[in-house]
Amino acid sequence: MFDTLSDRLTSVLANLRGKGKLTDADIDATAREIRIALLEADVALPVVRAFISQVKERAKGAEVSQALNPAQQVIKIVNEELIAILGGETRRLNLAKTPPTVIMLAGLQGSGKTTLAGKLAMWLKKQGHAPLLVACDLQRPNAVTQLQVVGERAGVPTFAPEPGNGVGDPVDVARRSIDEARRAQHDVVVVDTAGRLGVDEELMRQAADIRDAVQPDETLFVVDAMIGQDAVTTAEAFRDGVGFNGVVLTKLDGDARGGAALSVRHVTGQPILFASNGEKLEDFDVFHPDRMASRILG
Ligand code: GDP
Fold it and tell me: Which residues does the record give as GTP binding sites (predicted)?
């Protein structure tokens, strides 16, 4: 098990209570402990560095308070900075002025997109919307069926290419789904797209073509929290290849400490909207920056 950051800082700063300002030596010792804690949480190194220099700046000016011991005080600063970086308040979903709102999901294969599509559809339905799922992952065998299955569980219909017409063109399916949404009065369309095991150009081009065809109100990058600091390169590739304005973290029920959240947020500047934490459709919530901050700090 990891020591919590709180334990570590308590031992580093044990003798400081009531001594006025933190000295540079105290701050350096503190920074080392924060660095270890963040690396253990699998935050990418450049992100750790940027974060620590920010915390150091704040710690330098801080008076040692009467109410909190120095360790608690540093933890408070670290926690506040983490929450700020992770997005402060949770951002709500952008809804189109003229329906349907289009939400497109992009990410690596296995990141949990199809499962998320079902979760999001069920959540939207509970919020009083009438969503339509759209199957644009025509690469992976069974992806369409998998989406139909989660759609049935969520009680939401799925728009998919007609069987027997070959693989089908995902861009065409995406385009036609918008007409179908208007016809059948669905106010939100959730588009599942193909993902490969690694980032590849063809995948990016296809996702960008779908994006151009449906002009999403939200393009959500879906990322498995278990991939830790690899999230940085993946996020950069999707940012450059497709672009996105929101992030969904999946598999938070695993033992990942959450470094991916901080890394993706820091590198792309885009907010994390939702958290997926299990295989069942109910295992889903809006993202809470404060909970993630506690998880990262251990
Ligand atoms: P896709 O390839 O991006 O569409 O990913 P899938 O939705 O097919 O998910 C890949 C695997 O991860 C499946 O076995 C899912 O059941 C599982 N999965 C998806 N989301 C979660 C999650 O939040 N927690 C856990 N433990 N498993 C998940």
Answer: 107-114, 192-196, 250-253
CA of 264 to the centre of ligand 1 (A): 19
Beta pairing partners, 159? 134
Closest CA to 275 of 263, 256, 288, 264: 288
Q: Is any ligand 1 atom within 6 A of the Cβ of residue 258? A: no
Q: Which protein residue's CA is at the shortest distance from atom 12 of ligand 1?
A: 112
The residue whose CB lies within 8 Å of the most ligand 1 atoms, and thus the one to mutate among 104, 115, 227, is 115
* CB neighbourhood size of 223 (10 A): 27
Answer yes or no: is 109 a known binding residue.
yes
Q: Which residue has the tokens 């644009």?
A: 136
Q: Is 277 in the pocket of ligand 1 (CB under 6 A)?
A: yes
Q: Tell me, what's the pLDDT at 1?
A: 47
What's the average model confidence in pLDDT over 80-106?
90
Tokens 């990891």 belong to residue: 2
CB 251 within 8 A of CB 228: no
Q: Is the dihedral of CA 40, 42, 45, 50 positive or negative?
A: negative
CB of 134 closer than 8 Å to CB of 191? yes
ipTM of the complex: 0.99
